[in-house]
Every structure is written in C-alpha cells, then in structure tokens.
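job 3f2a | input accepted
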Amino acid sequence: MMRQYELVERVQRYNPNCDEALLNRAYVYAMQKHGLQKRASGDPYFSHPLEVAAILTELNADDTTIVIALLHDTIEDTDATRAEIDQLFGSEIGALVEGLTKLRKLDLVSKKTEQAENLRKLLLAIAEDLRVLLVKLADRLHNMRTLHYAPQHKWQRIAEETMEIYAPLAGRMGMQDMREELEHLSFKTLHPEACSSIQARLEELQEKNRTLISDIESELSEALKQRGIAAVVRGRRKQPYSIYNKMVSKNLGFEQLSDIYGFRVILDDVDTCYRALGVVHQLWSSVPGRFKDYISTPKPNGYQSLHTTVIGPHTQRVELQFRTHDMQQIAEYGVAAHTLYKDKLGENGATPKLSEDSLTYAWLRQTIEALSEGASPEEFLENTKLELFQDQVFCFTPKGLLITLPRRATPIDFAYAVHTNVGNTCVGCKINGAIMPLTSELRNGDEVEIIRAKLAVTQPAWEQIAVTGKARAAIRRATREAARAQLADLGRQILTTVFANEHREFSDQILERALPRLSQPSVPDLLAAVGRSEIPSTNVLKAAYPDFKEERSAGREALSEAGWYSFAAQAAVKFHADSVENAHFDLPIRSIASDLPVHFARDGGAVPGDRIVGILTDEGKSITIFPIQSPALAQYEGKRDLWLDVRWDIDSKTPMRFPAQIAIQSRNEPGSLARIAQAISDTDGNIDNIRMARRTPDFHEIVVDLEVWDIKHLVSIIDRVGLQTNVSKVERING
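job 3f2a | predicted structure (735 res):
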C-alpha cells in the first residue's frame, strides 16, 4: 500500500506547487475513517481509494481531484458527513464527494428504464464537473483490476457495464490508454476463450517477428535523423480486444489482419509532423486509403495526429501515428491533460473549470441536449449508446464549418447536426455540388448543402435512415408534434361545429376559461384531447358555458294545427286526418281506431328528426313507424291504403328515448368492444343489445341496438365511435 509521502511525491513530480498540506490532510482523514474495514481481497479498504488516487496521478490530475479520489467512499461507507468534509476541505470538495456517493451504486446494465435513468444521472453529473468522470473512471479501473476478488456472479454485470458505458466514455473524453485497459479487462472477463486464443496467436507472432518492432524503430529513427528531424519512435503490438473487434466487424480471420503493429512518432511541432510523414512515404510504400489527417480536422474529443499505414520491413503492414508532444499528452490523458484543469487560480481564488467551448466538451453537450429530444429514458439510452460506439467521418458545410458524424451517416444526420430546425425543414441535399438522395452515405471531406423549405414536413421514415441519436430523437419528436397538431386541428373543427350548432361564441380565450374545469394545461392540449376523443365536445361546451343545458328535442308541436291528432296509446307520434269531421273523438280514420298500438321498425327503428311514415300492419291491428329512407318500405309499394301520414309529437318536459341501430366494423383486438361501449357511454347513449354479425381473424362486424334522444344524439354517437382507433367503419342501419 502506498504511503503518505509517496503519494505526495507522485503529485510533486508533475506539479511542484501542489498543496501538500491538503493532500496529507485528506490521506490521514480517509485512512482514519475507513479504519479496519476490509475489501473482498482481505486488503485494508483504504487501499482502494489510495489506488484510485494513484491512477489519477498517472493522469497528472490536479490536487482537488486527488483529494476527491481519497474521500470518494467516506460518506457512503463510514460515519463521515457532508458537513464535516465541507468544514475540513471546503464546500467544492464536499459537493463533489457527495455527488460521487450518489453515483456509486448506479447499475447501468439492469432493467432498461433504470439503466437509462442512471446513465442520464451520470452524464449530468459529468457535465456539472468533469472531475467526477476522472474519479469515476479511475474507480472503475481499479475495480476491474481486482474483479477476481468479487463474487463470481457479479463479474458478468460489472464487465458488461464497463464495456458498454465506461470504456466508450473514456474514449470519448480522449483517455485512450484507460479505454484500452478497461476494454481488455472486460474482454478477458466476458470472452475468456477468445481473449486467450488471440493472446496466444500474438505471442506466436511475436516470437516469429522477435526483432520487428526494434528494427522498425531503429530504421525509422535513423531515416528521420539523416534529414535533421529529431523524433521519439515508440512501437507496440495492438491489444487483443482491438484485434477481436476488427475480426468480428470486418469478418476476417487472424491471418487476414495486417496492421497488428503500431508506431507513434513524437515530434517537436506540427510542421515537423508533415515533414516526417513525407520521409516515411519515401522510405516505405503507403497503403492507399489509409491516410487520415486529424491535425487539420481534430476529433471531437480534441485528439490530433497524422495516421498512415505502410508496407514496412518483411512486407509487414504497420500503422504509424505522427504527433507533437502536446498532442501526445492529450491522446494519453484526454480531459485530464487540459491546461485549464490544473491548479491555476481564477477570479476570487476559484479553480477554473474546463472551458465550455473546448472540443472535449462538444460531445457531452450534444448528448445532454438529446435529453430534451427524447420522449423516454429508454430512448435517451438508445441514442447515447449509438453515439458512444460510432467512429467518425468529417464533412463540411458550404461555408467551411466542420461537422463530425458517425460512419454511415446520411445528409439527414448532417442536417440535424447543424441544427434541429435545419433537419426539420430539410427537403433535399447537394453533396459536392451535385443533387443526391437523402439516403446517400457521407464520406470524409464531403461538402454537404441542405436544401430547405419552410413548409417541409418531417418524414417518420427518416428515423430508419438516420444513424445518429440526435437525429433519431429529433425526428421522433417532430413526428409526435405533427400528429398532435393534426389532432388539435380535428378537435378545433369538432368544437367549432358544436359551438355553432348551439349558437355559442367560440374562441381560444373562451377555451382558456374552461381549462381548469377540464384539467388541461393549455388550449392546444385541450384541442388534441378532443381530437383523440378523450374529452367529449359537449363537456367542453358545458365547461365553457356553465349555464348551458342540453336540449333533447324541440318540444311538442302545436296541436291546434288543422288535421293532426294524437294517438291515445302513443304520445310521441300523431297522425293526419283528411278532415276534422273524420277525426272526432275515437272515431276511426280510414277505418282505423285512434288507440291502435304503435311500434317502431324492427331493424333500425326511428328517432325524432327522421322523416317518418306509418304502415298499418297485422291486418290493420297495429301501426309500425318507419323512417322514410327505410328499404323495408319497398314491400308496401302499391298498397297505398296501408300508408299513414304521421309526425313526431315530443313533449320536452317528459323526454323519451327511441330505438336505433348502428353497424360497426372494428379490429379484432383485446379491449376493442370496451372502447366502443365507453364511447357510447360518454355521449349518453344507452346500449340495448349487442351482437356479432360477422367475425374474421382481423375484424369483427358488430350490430348495436341503441336508445337515443333524437337524430342529433344518434349522429353524435356515430361520430364519437368512428373516432376510435380500433374502428374502421360505423354507419346507421335503416331497416
């Protein structure tokens, strides 16, 4: 276990002006608090935060980060409190330690919703202060190094979490060496057989080419020296996971791999990097298509280098990277190498944070921005993982602005990368001056111009074309908003008609007064709810005008009109006589008594508002009322003596319900009938009977016998049922 003075010496090697007293105080405090606690390995628990701090010293972390590493488990595992840490070390350190405590037990590979929410918390904490990420990654690295001491049933979960989240995060933040070690340790746990197999093949290859790395190092160093270029050449063999990943992604065997060896050439300045590249291409043949210039176009995490692949000694393909000493620092340490993160005091003695304009922060800002685009945590998780695992391609706007996108990105991704509004108004594109389809795959160096239109509509199918999480999230959001706008327009049309029929004024101001009664946050939300049939239009009318009382009928018509008389047995209908004399008291009319029983047509019935006709049935012993449009009347053609001229006679004081039938074609799915019944109930309809007229695997034809107040009420029910998503067709039956 590292001693106190050793930790201080480690920090002093790269920061001679470190706060030695602060480091000593944190060391002693953490050791005292953890006391006799033991790890699963049997080592003192304090060895863990000490090792985390040691890892951070390798990244040249500032004093504050080292102190946070020493204290990061104290609140969780000891009797230490936030107030105590604030008093001893300051509120800034106290806040960061508490934040790490909350993040400590995040499970990023459990249930999908929980995983998504936990990842969101992690990224938000990182966005607040990147030192949280440094400590979190160092903590995870030490846990992976000692994973074999943990219970075996936890190995899979921890390794998956590391491979899916922490290793890509380290890569995105520029800490390549840490990413490679995290990947290797996870790979060894998740795929032990594949790892050992590749490791064995690499050792065989190394034995075969024992002097290859040293030969190339010496030959390249000598060639550069002869041309007056001072350089440090370092060769290495690639990691097993990198090789495994290439074999899987490109479907190659181990023998087909070429660039197993890589070399870094460290130089003094940028000009020398390009000169050294020219020397190498003169010395060895370059492989076409394998040159990448990340100096003129840095990666989003700030990484800069020149990459090339050549045919070196023994016809062995080797990859070379040319970079300056500063570039090497950023390549190794990423955000931890940023000069603004060192102990330089800002205004009022505060430690300045990493510049928000830094390239290192760009991806993180974009990812956090996606939080507002997604409708659910699961969507955010999907988008973030898409961003974490993608390699980059570099494209330009017509004005020369560099846009970094994942491989296989399309102009749709490009448009949304520029701005969400640019993507939403996109209708076409030009790639290198030529009009191209939006499905085109972008390549390095492409100049992309987005063609826009103000009235453009975002296509839902674009989601299948886009590869970036930001684009997919924005497309989903635009699609949802478009659907909501359509429903709101439908709701406005429904309400406009209903208000107009009742001779009531309609406006958004009037609807705003009704919002509290309907529990709706805004007028657009209310309109959309009406369009979705969640709120009946009559409820909106009643909420807007509390004095409104729905009228079921127009009231009893005047009986003083000459020639019209009521049936004694049926108050709702009256008949017409040719003359008053023929209708005196109970005298028959055309041999008909006024107290004959009156019935409504068996199939379809009739309701107030229909034009109706009476037919003498049962050999003149009863009267059946048909709507004038009923096909059944065809059988009484030519039998004019059976026809009666009848009219509705409704008493508004004693309203009645009348029979009607509707035929509904509905999808065969659970809950379909319940939704139909609910729609009828919401409009005050009464179901008398339901029967299945026809059944198919996909659709049911349902006949519903209703009791309604009048034709207006029946139409309202038909409209409401027709708006249900499971109903494809609804119509009245006119028997």
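job 3f2a | The radius of gyration is 40 Å.
job 3f2a | closed
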